[in-house]
Structure formats: structure tokens, C-alpha cells
Amino acid sequence: xxxxxxxxxxxxxxxxxxxxxYFRRPGFKQIALPGLPGSDEFMAAYQLALAGQAPRTEIGxxxxxxxxxxxxxxxxxxxxxxxxxxxxxxxxxxxxxERFREVHGDKRIALLPxxxxxxxxxxxxxxxxxxxxxxxxxxxxxxxxxxxxxxxPTLGIKLPPIKSDGIHCWTDAEIEKxxxxxxxxxxxxxxxxxxxxxxxxxxxVIAMGRQHIRDSAISVRQxxxxxxxxxxxxxxxxxxxxxxFFEHLTFLVTEHDKPFTATGFGSWFRNRCVEAGxxxxxxxxxxxxxxxRRLAEAGCxxxxxxxxxxHASLREVERYTKAADQARxxxxxxxxxxxxxxxx
Length: 344
Fold this sequence. Notes:
Layout: E1 9-13, E2 19-23, E3 31-32, H1 40-50, H2 69-77, H3 80-83, H4 87-104, H5 114-122, H6 126-145, H7 172-181, H8 187-198, H9 202-205, E4 213-214, E5 217-221, E6 228-232, H10 235-242, H11 262-275, H12 284-297, H13 302-309, H14 314-343
Antiparallel strand pairs: 1-2, 2-3, 4-5, 5-6
Helix pairs in contact: 1-2, 2-4, 4-6, 5-6, 8-10, 8-12, 12-14, 13-14
């Protein structure tokens, strides 16, 4: 029998010889876990403990009934499909599913109609609807594969394209304004340089350290995709690194000398942007977009940009190259028209 590996679970035998299991995680309350590892009862309690909640103790509520939304979600969390997702995607989906089962946990998933999904999507914002549909689709496909239901209620549901540029891409004027407020040698400038001159997500930037630099390049294993990149160190990034003293494994640490979490860094960096007098739409991820834009405007191809940014699909990168090509062609057109006018 395959043993299930579960984080923070400790077991021991009490003075009566009974094997007991507890969830023990630094900063969390110790919680007793009922049943056997892998059972619906145990896994339901374990998932609640991971979320920082104690399992409910009212009569009948500690046992998860097979076939319910609650039971299928617990099974999905332990499936290969869910565990293979990037940690950030797991957290996003877990948040959505926990809210979903708070309301519908006791219902049988086999009775979940397609109309319910359509109605629920119609009440959400475009971006929230997209995330919610992806999450429920993953859960539904697991339910079908495990014979909890015969069909996927999300099959064939398509959302209209989002008419938005999404996250704000920094302009060159905003970049200059930030640099004026946060000069070389400050943590704010180093964070900015790492984001702009590596074109990486903030979750990857906060993990970077001296140990990742070799032969004038920085090595990155992207948390979201697992892609391994070697990115040449840009001269402006080299200046920021040379002006900063490091005594930790990561370049960026909190005021308590601890590594940043992705959420904590996002909030911290937004405050640095506010200090620079920038609008709140300027974000860490917006610098990743700005890096791609600047590379495209320099004449880089989509493949060259992706070699730095690590985009798995060229569709997003091609948006920048097409925009740069359009601007370049427009300038060439006006130049031709001006030369014709001058000759005339």
C-alpha cells in the first residue's frame, strides 16, 4: 500500500497504545486529525487544518459523505492533477474551492447542473469568471475521472473575450519617475531593477540570490512553469547589484531580514511606487510587461523575448512585437510622406 506523504502531520502512540495523529505547523494551532490518512474524514480535517481552521465538531459534521462536493474537493486536492499545478495556481484554486464548498459542500456533485455553472458565471466579473471556470472545470474533470458523475457540467461553456489590456504596462516616463525617487543603493531600486531587467514574475524575483549568478548570467527556475532560464545580467541591473550589500541568500528581504512572500512583496513594492508618486495601477507584474515592451521596441523577435521572459506561449509576447511593428511602420510611412513633400 502506498503511503501518503502529508506535511505537518505527526503521529505517536499514547499511553494506551493507540496511534494518534496531529497537525502541527509553526504559527498554527495544534489540531487532532481523526480517522486514517487518506480517508474522507481524515483528509477533510487535514485540508481545514492547512487553511488554519479546526474541523467542526458538531454531531455528524466531522465525517465527509462520499459523493458530496466536499468529498470530491478533498479528493481533488490529493490528486496528481492538482498537485502538478504550480503552487500559486494551487493557492488560487484552493481559495475559490473553499468558498464554493462553504455554500455547497453537502450537496451531491452528481446533481450539479450545467445551468448552475452558467448562472454563477453571469454574476461574476470577467476576470473572476475566468478563474472560477478554470477551477470548477478542473474539479469537474476529476469528478468524471473518478466516476463521481457521468459528465462535465463545464464542457462547452465559453466566456466572451475580455476587452481589456489587463495589468498596466509601465511607460518610460513612469520608469524614469520611479528611478528618480529610488536611487541606486536602495532596496526599492534593486527590486525594480530585478523586475525590469530580468522580465520575471515577482514570485521568481524574490527567490533570486548571489548563488544564482554565474558567468555574468542569472539562473532562474520559474515557479509557475518550472522553466529553467539563464538570463544575461543587464548593465543597469549590474549597477544596482554592485551598489547593494548582501548578507542573505536572497537579494530581497523584509525589514525583519526574512525572505519575502509573494503577497508581502507585492504590497511592499506597491508602497514604493506610491512613494514615487505613481498611480496605484503601477505594479510589480506591470514591469514584466514593460520589459517585454521595451525588448519589442528594440527590434527583438517574439522568440527572443520569450527566451528572457520564459513565456510558454508566444501569443502574449506577440502582442508586444505587433504593437512595436505597427509603431515602426507608422513612423516609416510618415517619413516617406515627409520626404515626398520635401521633394515636391
